[in-house]
Amino acid sequence: MPKYIVEAMPNQISAEVIELMEKAETATVGHWRHWGFMDRSIQGLLRRRVAGTAVTIQIPGPDSTLLHHALGLLRPGDILIVDRLGDDRHACWGGGVTVAAKAAGAKAGVVGGPCTDIEEIEASDFPMWCKGMAPITTRIYDLGGRMNVPVSVGGVVVMPGDAVLCDDCGVLVLPPGEAEEEARKAIATQARGLEGQAAVAKGAKLGERSGASAKVLAGLG
To answer: For each of the chain's 221 residues, which pLDDT tens digit applies?
Structure first.
């Protein structure tokens, strides 16, 4: 087996679908969908909502050789998904990687492990999702890796070209063919939710609107 595998860059999600996704909230989709959500340990470092096309890599614990190479292949609109293969000690992403990803036009980075250089990430104003901070960084050890293959991050299998939605509540991965429908459903649900909140603010009972009160009263016997 070769030390590195670098497959072709995936087709990108259309700008129209990305625009719709960025109006949707992951927590709204979480009202009806139970799969595609990364573990809640993967959290955003900045308060943002972004969507884009998944570009995937796998890199082993202390090594970031392929990550540095991949940064030169990113396109505007991509979100780089980094499978750390179980490593939770070494931070592969810091200030330098952030600058390179932003310069390439990437929308965000998602790392299944820790990052470092939080001040530089904040200064770059680049959206990142990861498992917190670590001071021990990776090196260019040339241990190998895979790019644009199926990966596992936060308990979710991510395929190259998947649609990715990241916000303050977490990261959602969708097959490209499902992204538009889920985004439109979320947008409509959010609009109804705002209407309901306005009614409750004016005195309507939440339990009556949701049907919860009817269930409780029926269960009293």
So the answer is: 899 999 999 999 999 999 999 999 999 999 999 999 999 999 999 999 999 999 999 999 999 999 999 999 999 999 999 999 999 999 999 999 999 999 999 999 999 999 999 999 999 999 999 999 999 999 999 999 999 999 999 999 999 999 999 999 999 999 999 999 999 999 999 999 999 999 999 999 999 999 999 999 999 97
Q: Phi/psi at 190 (nearest 5 deg)?
A: -65, -40
pTM exceeds 0.90 for this model: yes
86: nearest Cα among 111, 117, 69:
111
Query: Nearest-CA neighbor of 108 among 51, 153, 62?
Result: 51
Tokens of 204: 């309507």
